[in-house]
Amino acid sequence: xxxxxxxxxxxxxxxxxxxxxxxxxxxxxxxxxxxxxxxxxxxxxxxxxxxxxxxxxxxxxxxxxxxxxxxxxxxxxxxxxxxxxxxxxxxxxxxxxxxxxxxxxxxxxxxxxxxxxxxxxxxxxxxxxxxxxxxxxxxxxxxxxxxxxxxxxxxxxxxxxxxxxxxxxxxxxxxxxxxxxxxxxxxxxxxxxxxxxxxxxxxxxxxxxxxxxxxxxxxxxxxxxxxxxxxxxxxxxxxxxxxxxxxxxxxxxxxxxxxxxxxxxxxxxxxxxxxxxxxxxxxxxxxxxxxxxxxxxxxxxxxxxxxxxxxxxxxxxxx
Length: 319
Fold this sequence. Notes:
Shape: globular
Radius of gyration: 18 Å
CATH superfamily: Alpha/Beta hydrolase fold, catalytic domain
Low-confidence stretches: none
Helix content: 25-40%
Number of helices: 10
Number of strands: 8
Largest sheet: 8 strands, mixed
Distance between the termini: 35 Å
Order of helices and strands: HHEEEHEHEHEHHHEHEH
Number of domains: 1
Strand content: 15-25%
CATH topology: Rossmann fold
CATH class: Alpha Beta
């Protein structure tokens, strides 16, 4: 059923929905530069992150290109776990800079080193370019962190498209003896590129993330004209969706946090259910009155924002 949104979010949604109607009328709603700037503009609604003792910007040289990243170490004198943080943004937008406050909060809540990666984005770099960047980080983070103190514990975390990246990495490396992910943290994750869950239509209009924009995001990401009318495209999109991959008890302990007024609500819940049925240790929490991308709106919902990190901290600390 359609969610009932928090009153604290209604003024923003009214403003956004008005602007979206105007953008659609002018034909400017679905331009990469526009949607990237719109996401970056949400920084005005974000609380600043906490101080972290060591923060460093680095360049990671991959075989054919380089990407930037930022390393956060809350206690450089200690050998802490490592958390790989993959930002959201529909595989088309988002950045290390926009997500700086969240990376800082994750470093404090998990008491871990955090690496946040500026993986490549569509449409300039369609699937699987960005995912390959994240796979490279997963395989090589120890070499990248030479000179930093850390232990063997590895966590991954991501929201929305970042959740898609986390769950894809888990599925793709489940039988890889060189990779062991201890825990994954998923915030309103995107795990079904076929857009087949009921909440897509129930919450797909008026709650910031619109169903038609999601479909356009995925068309750019997979470099296809349609995600549901062409057999080859449909097969590609379904095979890339973590929700339809084989779930395995060897998957890491998993935290899933969903939002009741989010088009992605049902697929996040279903992912948690399927993982639990496979024998995975899963925790699932839902904020019934929040929307997609609420972590980028922390000034408007500070109590739920803080509660999210309390949930993450408890998940990390609970063996």
